[in-house]
């Protein structure tokens, strides 16, 4: 069976609306003879005369009257599909966005994001899920709408990426901890009891490499999977947590934070999404909300002078 020429639907819609070949031809910028040929093709395709002569004009057949409303709806829907999406009606927007991020990100940036979304689009719901690994499959499969994290070599190359903020590790201890008094040297830092944060359970990382260059080794007494867990342990003990500063600002309230006495490599936290969501207006909006909120926190972990005041 041959594929029908869908352009004929537009011609049929105009013919049925005008009831006149010449007027229909003018609307479609065709010659009367071209419109007559199109009507012949429509008659062949439908097996019905569609428009028949009555005096000096044309009148629709019962089949044409039956098709008129249906064809009009089809043409209107097709036209809407093939034009840019109109501005979002936030009041009527009903949607759930799934965001995947590391522990600490939601605690720090989530409250503002939730409040902004609720104010602008009360029908939108945010679903935050944990990030147990760096697998890009959830974005590819549409299980996750947006993800935050560090772009690495294993990140799927087709994913879209936008930087949110730069961050670096800092040290955090409970209020009144011995490290909250006096200069924090590499030796004083290394001599403490440390909490390592690793989803993979690793007890060595860039901080240990930097200490090793100075001939120092820190004692890792426990390994946890997330930043908030590390800070909870540090808050209730003499252990030292080393966590990203901007990522954990709200979680560190009431604790003593300090710049690491070794070189801490700066990292870039980005948001990632699948390219099929590029043109989705609602998805663009939620990306913009997250970007603006992170930008508003610019400088949250900035200078050593600011850190020691916390």
Model description:
This protein is of the alpha/beta class. The chain has three domains: 7-81, Orthogonal Bundle (Arc Repressor Mutant, subunit A); 90-167 and 268-296, D-Maltodextrin-Binding Protein, domain 2; 169-265, Periplasmic binding protein-like II (D-Maltodextrin-Binding Protein, domain 2, 3-Layer(aba) Sandwich). 37% of the residues lie in helices and 21% in strands. It contains eleven helices and twelve strands. The protein has helices spanning 7-18, 21-27, 32-46, 62-81, 105-120, 137-140, 186-191, 206-212, 227-235, 281-296, 304-307, and strands spanning 51-54, 57-60, 95-101, 124-130, 146-149, 160-167, 169-173, 193-197, 219-224, 240-244, 256-259, 267-273. The protein is rod-shaped, with a radius of gyration of 32 Å. The relative contact order is 0.14.
Report the radius of gyration as a whole number of Å. 32 Å
What is the level-2 CATH architecture name of the largest domain?
A: 3-Layer(aba) Sandwich
How would you classify the quaternary structure?
Answer: single chain
Helices and strands, in N-to-C order? HHHEEHEHEHEEEHEHEHEEEHH
Cα distance, first to last residue?
A: 75 Å
* The level-1 CATH class of the largest domain: Alpha Beta
Instruction: Label the structural class.
Output: alpha/beta
Low-confidence stretches: 299-310
The strand line-up of the biggest sheet is 4-3-5-12-6
Q: How would you name the CATH homologous superfamily of the largest domain?
A: Periplasmic binding protein-like II
**Main beta sheet, described?**
5 strands, mixed
Number of helices: 11
Query: If you consult CATH, what is the topology of the largest domain?
Result: D-Maltodextrin-Binding Protein, domain 2
The proportion of residues in beta strands is 15-25%
Q: How many domains make up the 3D coordinates?
A: 3
* Overall shape: rod-shaped
Number of strands: 12
């Amino acid at each position: 069976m041959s594929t029908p020429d869908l352009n004929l639907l537009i011609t049929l819609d105009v013919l049925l609306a005008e009831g006149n070949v010449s007027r229909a031809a003018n609307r479609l910028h065709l010659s009367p003879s071209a419109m007559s040929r199109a009507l012949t093709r429509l008659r062949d395709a439908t097996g019905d005369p569609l428009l028949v002569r009555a005096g000096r004009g044309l009148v629709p057949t019962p089949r044409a009257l039956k098709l008129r409303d249906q064809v009009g709806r089809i043409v209107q829907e097709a036209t809407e599909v093939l034009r840019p999406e109109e501005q979002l009606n936030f009041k009527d927007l009903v949607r759930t966005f799934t965001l995947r991020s590391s522990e600490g990100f939601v605690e720090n940036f989530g409250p503002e994001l939730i409040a902004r979304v609720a104010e602008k689009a009360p029908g939108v719901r945010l679903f935050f899920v944990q990030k147990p690994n760096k697998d890009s499959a959830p974005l590819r499969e549409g299980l996750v709408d947006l993800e935050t994290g560090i772009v690495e070599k294993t990140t799927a190359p087709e994913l879209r990426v936008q930087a949110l903020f730069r961050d670096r590790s800092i040290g955090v201890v409970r209020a009144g901890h011995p490290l909250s008094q006096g200069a924090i040297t590499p030796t004083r830092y290394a001599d403490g009891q440390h909490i390592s944060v690793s989803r993979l359970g690793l007890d060595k990382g860039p901080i240990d490499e930097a200490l090793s260059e100075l001939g120092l080794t820190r004692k890792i007494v426990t390994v946890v999977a997330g930043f908030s867990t590390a800070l909870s342990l540090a808050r209730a003990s003499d252990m030292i947590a080393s966590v990203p500063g901007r990522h954990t600002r709200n979680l560190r309230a009431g604790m003593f934070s300090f710049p690491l006495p070794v070189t801490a490599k700066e990292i870039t936290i980005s948001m990632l999404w699948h390219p099929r969501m590029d043109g989705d207006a609602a998805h663009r909006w939620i990306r913009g909300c997250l970007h603006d909120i992170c930008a508003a926190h610019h400088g949250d972990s900035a200078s050593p002078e600011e850190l020691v005041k916390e």
